[in-house]
Amino acid sequence: MKIICVGRNYSKHIEELNNQKPQEPVLFLKPDSAIVLKNQPFVIPPFSTNIQHEVEILVKINRIGKHIDAKFAHKYYNEIGLGIDFTARDLQSTLKAKGLPWEKAKAFDGSAVIGKFLPKNSFDDLNNINFILKKNDTVVQEGNTAQLLWKIDELIAYISTFFTLKIGDVIFTGTPAGVGKVETNDVLSGFIEEKQLFKVKIK
């Protein structure tokens, strides 16, 4: 499996990091070694002093597809989930300033939390899904898929132009505003509507 991540897909998050609004989706990949194993903590790596949380709606691919038309994209997934894209913001800033790729800041071991998935048909409208991230029981991020600059089906069509999508691939659709630094002993929990889909401790 592969993890395909979308950057800068919420306007307010673009603003909070002083980035420019892209003309097309920003894509990057994480390897499978980025996944935090079930019931394991996230361990702050030694190469960063500013690891930040980014909660995101996830889509799990269930069919092989290439050059998928947006109007058929809904056939390529049955489940919606929630996760965290951990980012070494200090390292990312250094890499961006030098015009270098972000992978060391975004794709390091343990940089992806993948929570539980819910059936797609359990939602009345995929473009109106509320989700939140709590840090130590305080809401720090909240978003709704209505705020996505590129909706789920548009992302699948765009991504499949460059990468063949395979069964089990997971798409991280982007994070809303509210990203912030994590500290040792923090506990992060993510919810879609009122269902908790993950809980992870920081070490």
Can you give a write-up of this model?
There is one protein chain. This protein has a single domain (3-201), classed as Fumarylacetoacetate hydrolase, domain 2 (Alpha-Beta Complex), CATH 3.90.850.10. The chain contains 4 helices and 13 strands. The protein has helices at residues 11-16, 89-97, 103-106, 152-162; strands at 3-7, 26-30, 51-53, 55-61, 77-85, 87-88, 112-119, 130-135, 138-144, 170-172, 180-181, 187-192, 195-201. The strands form 3 sheets. It has a 6-stranded mixed β-sheet with strand order 2-1-10-4-5-7, with helices on one face. A 4-stranded antiparallel β-sheet has the order 9-8-12-13, with no helix packed on it. A hairpin with a 2-residue loop joins strand 8 and strand 9 (138-144). It is globular.
Strand and helix map with partners:
Blueprint: E1 3-7, H1 11-16, E2 26-30, E3 51-53, E4 55-61, E5 77-85, E6 87-88, H2 89-97, H3 103-106, E7 112-119, E8 130-135, E9 138-144, H4 152-162, E10 170-172, E11 180-181, E12 187-192, E13 195-201
CATH class: Alpha Beta
Main beta-sheet annotation: 6 strands, mixed
Instruction: Determine Rg (CA atoms, Å).
Output: 16 Å
Class from helix and strand fractions: alpha+beta
Structural domains: how many: 1
Distance between the termini: 27 Å
Name a few traits of the molecule.
6-stranded mixed sheet, 203 residues, alpha+beta, single chain, 4-stranded antiparallel sheet, Fumarylacetoacetate hydrolase, domain 2, globular, 15% helix
